[in-house]
UniProtKB/TrEMBL annotation:
One of its GO terms (molecular function) is DNA binding. InterPro entries: Cro/C1-type_HTH, Lambda_DNA-bd_dom_sf. PROSITE patterns: HTH_CROC1 (PS50943). Gene3D superfamilies: lambda repressor-like DNA-binding domains. This is HTH cro/C1-type domain-containing protein. The lineage of its organism: Bacteria, Bacillati, Actinomycetota, Actinomycetes, Kitasatosporales. It holds the Pfam family HTH_31. Residues 16-52 form the HTH cro/C1-type domain.
C-alpha cells in the first residue's frame, strides 16, 4: 500500500490527519507513531500492532504489542491505573514482587526482557558489579527482588560472577603477572550483565 493510500485510510477510517511524508518517516524509522496512530495504522494495514513493532523493548511497546489498554494492564497486574501510566511514561517500574511477576506473565516476558522493559538494566548492572567485587551474599536479596528467578539460581549466578571476577584480578596481582593493571577485571565488569544472563541460562 502506498504512503498516500495509508494516509488517506487513516484520515477516512480513523479521522487522523497524517501526511504521506509522516507515513514514509514511520516506514524508515525516522519517526514513531503514537499509540493512537499505531492502532489505526494496524487497522488500515489489516494487521496487529505487534506486527508493526520490530522488537518491543519498553513497557509501552510490550503493552501495545499485546493490544492492551494501559488501564486494562494496570488492572491485571494489580496497580492503580494512574500509577501504572506514570511508570510507563517514566520508563521505570516500581511494582512489588507479585505485581512484577504478574506483569511478566501478562506481557509474556522472560527475565531478561522484563528487566529491559522495566528500565532495570543499569540498576541490575550496578548491583552485579557490586556483587562481583565485594561480598556477593549481600546482593542475593536485592537481585532476587528484581528478577523473576528462583533464589537458588540468583545465588549460583552471583557466586559465579564473584569467583570469575576475582580469578581475573588475582591473575593480575600475582608475582608472575605480566604487568597487567586490572584491564581484564574492568573488561569483565563492563560485560557483567552478559555474564550474568549466561550464568542463569537466559
Amino acid at each position: 500500500m502506498a504512503p498516500d493510500h495509508v494516509a488517506y485510510g487513516l484520515r477516512a477510517q480513523y479521522g487522523l490527519f497524517v501526511t504521506p511524508d509522516a507515513v514514509v518517516a514511520w516506514e524508515r524509522g525516522r519517526a514513531v507513531p503514537d499509540e493512537q496512530q499505531l492502532t489505526a495504522l494496524a487497522g488500515v494495514l489489516w494487521c496487529s500492532p505487534a506486527e508493526l513493532i520490530a522488537a518491543p523493548a519498553t513497557l509501552r511497546e510490550h503493552r501495545m504489542a499485546r493490544g492492551l489498554a494501559p488501564e486494562e494492564l494496570a488492572l491485571r497486574v494489580g496497580v492503580a491505573a494512574h500509577a501504572y501510566q506514570r511508570m510507563e511514561d517514566e520508563g521505570r517500574w516500581r511494582g512489588t514482587e507479585r505485581q512484577t511477576a504478574a506483569l511478566a506473565e501478562v506481557l509474556g516476558l522472560g527475565p531478561r526482557a522484563l528487566i529491559t522493559a522495566t528500565g532495570g538494566d543499569e540498576r541490575l548492572a550496578e548491583l552485579l558489579r557490586d556483587a562481583a567485587t565485594t561480598r556477593w551474599q549481600a546482593y542475593v536479596k536485592p537481585a532476587a527482588k528484581m528478577l523473576p528467578l528462583p533464589r537458588r539460581t540468583v545465588e549460583f549466578a552471583l557466586q559465579r560472577l564473584h569467583g570469575e571476577y576475582h580469578a581475573r584480578m588475582a591473575a593480575t596481582s600475582s608475582w608472575g603477572a605480566s604487568g597487567a593493571t586490572g584491564d581484564e577485571g574492568r573488561a569483565y565488569l563492563d560485560g557483567i550483565t552478559g555474564h550474568f544472563w549466561a550464568a542463569v541460562g537466559s
